[in-house]
Amino acid sequence: MCQFGSVLPTIPASILNVDYQNLLEAMFTGNNPFTGQSLYPYYFGLHKNLVGVWSWYDYDQSEFPLSGFTKWGQGEPSTGNCTIMDSTDGVNLVWKTTGCDPVNVKINTVICQAKSCDSSSLACCSECVKPSKKKH
Protein backbone atom coordinates (compact mmCIF):
# COMPACT_ATOMS: atom_id res chain seq x y z
CA MET A 1 0.00 0.00 0.00
CA CYS A 2 2.82 2.41 0.89
CA GLN A 3 6.36 2.20 -0.44
CA PHE A 4 9.26 4.62 -0.40
CA GLY A 5 12.51 3.01 -1.40
CA SER A 6 13.97 -0.01 0.32
CA VAL A 7 15.53 1.73 3.33
CA LEU A 8 12.78 4.00 4.61
CA PRO A 9 10.02 2.23 6.62
CA THR A 10 6.70 3.58 5.33
CA ILE A 11 3.14 2.85 6.51
CA PRO A 12 -0.34 4.26 5.89
CA ALA A 13 -0.78 7.39 8.01
CA SER A 14 -1.76 7.10 11.69
CA ILE A 15 -3.71 10.20 12.68
CA LEU A 16 -3.31 10.25 16.45
CA ASN A 17 -4.10 13.89 17.27
CA VAL A 18 -5.91 16.98 16.05
CA ASP A 19 -2.65 18.70 15.05
CA TYR A 20 -1.80 15.95 12.56
CA GLN A 21 -5.39 15.96 11.25
CA ASN A 22 -5.17 19.75 10.76
CA LEU A 23 -1.84 19.42 8.93
CA LEU A 24 -3.33 16.85 6.55
CA GLU A 25 -6.39 19.04 5.98
CA ALA A 26 -4.12 21.97 5.10
CA MET A 27 -2.09 19.84 2.71
CA PHE A 28 -4.77 17.73 1.06
CA THR A 29 -7.97 19.74 0.65
CA GLY A 30 -8.80 21.74 -2.42
CA ASN A 31 -8.70 20.87 -6.10
CA ASN A 32 -6.06 19.52 -8.44
CA PRO A 33 -4.83 22.59 -10.37
CA PHE A 34 -4.56 20.58 -13.60
CA THR A 35 -7.88 18.70 -13.59
CA GLY A 36 -10.04 20.84 -11.29
CA GLN A 37 -11.14 17.66 -9.49
CA SER A 38 -11.00 17.38 -5.72
CA LEU A 39 -7.85 15.89 -4.23
CA TYR A 40 -9.77 13.58 -1.89
CA PRO A 41 -10.86 10.96 -0.81
CA TYR A 42 -7.75 9.25 0.53
CA TYR A 43 -7.13 5.96 2.24
CA PHE A 44 -5.14 6.18 5.47
CA GLY A 45 -4.05 3.61 8.05
CA LEU A 46 -7.15 3.06 10.18
CA HIS A 47 -8.68 -0.35 9.51
CA LYS A 48 -10.58 -3.16 11.21
CA ASN A 49 -8.16 -5.94 12.07
CA LEU A 50 -8.94 -9.67 11.90
CA VAL A 51 -10.87 -9.58 15.19
CA GLY A 52 -12.92 -6.50 14.19
CA VAL A 53 -11.05 -3.88 16.25
CA TRP A 54 -10.30 -0.48 14.67
CA SER A 55 -6.48 -0.39 14.53
CA TRP A 56 -3.48 1.44 13.10
CA TYR A 57 -0.45 -0.11 11.39
CA ASP A 58 2.93 0.22 13.10
CA TYR A 59 6.40 0.29 11.52
CA ASP A 60 7.24 -3.23 12.75
CA GLN A 61 4.14 -4.54 10.88
CA SER A 62 2.20 -4.97 14.10
CA GLU A 63 -0.97 -3.05 14.91
CA PHE A 64 -2.15 -0.88 17.78
CA PRO A 65 -5.79 -0.04 18.62
CA LEU A 66 -7.58 3.22 17.93
CA SER A 67 -7.73 5.31 21.07
CA GLY A 68 -8.16 8.98 21.87
CA PHE A 69 -8.55 11.24 18.84
CA THR A 70 -11.06 10.47 16.06
CA LYS A 71 -12.76 12.56 13.40
CA TRP A 72 -15.59 10.36 12.17
CA GLY A 73 -18.06 11.94 9.78
CA GLN A 74 -21.76 12.00 10.61
CA GLY A 75 -23.17 8.45 10.89
CA GLU A 76 -19.70 6.88 10.97
CA PRO A 77 -18.26 4.39 11.52
CA SER A 78 -20.65 2.34 9.42
CA THR A 79 -20.00 -0.69 7.22
CA GLY A 80 -16.57 -1.34 5.73
CA ASN A 81 -13.25 -2.41 7.15
CA CYS A 82 -11.07 0.46 5.93
CA THR A 83 -11.26 4.23 6.24
CA ILE A 84 -10.91 7.18 3.96
CA MET A 85 -10.63 10.89 4.59
CA ASP A 86 -13.22 12.76 2.57
CA SER A 87 -14.84 16.18 2.57
CA THR A 88 -18.32 17.47 1.91
CA ASP A 89 -17.43 21.15 2.28
CA GLY A 90 -14.01 21.34 0.58
CA VAL A 91 -12.33 22.47 3.80
CA ASN A 92 -12.65 19.83 6.50
CA LEU A 93 -11.66 16.19 6.07
CA VAL A 94 -13.67 13.62 8.02
CA TRP A 95 -13.22 9.89 8.42
CA LYS A 96 -15.58 7.51 6.64
CA THR A 97 -15.64 3.74 6.42
CA THR A 98 -15.31 2.01 3.08
CA GLY A 99 -14.25 -1.25 1.52
CA CYS A 100 -10.57 -2.12 1.42
CA ASP A 101 -10.25 -2.92 -2.30
CA PRO A 102 -9.22 0.28 -4.09
CA VAL A 103 -10.38 -1.07 -7.47
CA ASN A 104 -13.95 -1.73 -6.31
CA VAL A 105 -14.31 1.55 -4.41
CA LYS A 106 -12.37 3.55 -7.05
CA ILE A 107 -9.97 5.17 -4.58
CA ASN A 108 -6.30 4.78 -5.40
CA THR A 109 -4.63 7.42 -3.24
CA VAL A 110 -3.13 6.59 0.15
CA ILE A 111 -1.69 9.07 2.64
CA CYS A 112 1.51 7.47 3.90
CA GLN A 113 4.05 8.40 6.53
CA ALA A 114 7.70 7.45 6.82
CA LYS A 115 9.68 6.79 9.95
CA SER A 116 11.95 9.72 10.61
CA CYS A 117 15.59 9.76 11.51
CA ASP A 118 16.50 10.60 15.07
CA SER A 119 19.47 10.30 17.37
CA SER A 120 18.91 6.56 17.76
CA SER A 121 18.59 5.71 14.05
CA LEU A 122 20.12 6.93 10.82
CA ALA A 123 18.66 4.01 8.83
CA CYS A 124 16.47 6.36 6.79
CA CYS A 125 19.44 8.38 5.58
CA SER A 126 21.80 6.32 3.45
CA GLU A 127 23.76 9.48 2.66
CA CYS A 128 24.38 10.08 6.38
CA VAL A 129 26.43 6.95 6.89
CA LYS A 130 28.93 7.09 4.04
CA PRO A 131 32.41 5.95 5.05
CA SER A 132 34.74 8.86 5.66
CA LYS A 133 37.75 9.32 3.41
CA LYS A 134 41.04 9.44 5.27
CA LYS A 135 43.65 11.98 4.23
CA HIS A 136 47.23 10.72 4.05
TrEMBL record:
Residues 1-101 form the C-type lectin domain. SUPFAM superfamilies: C-type lectin-like. This is C-type lectin domain-containing protein. It comes from Acrobeloides nanus. The lineage of its organism: Eukaryota, Metazoa, Ecdysozoa, Nematoda, Chromadorea.
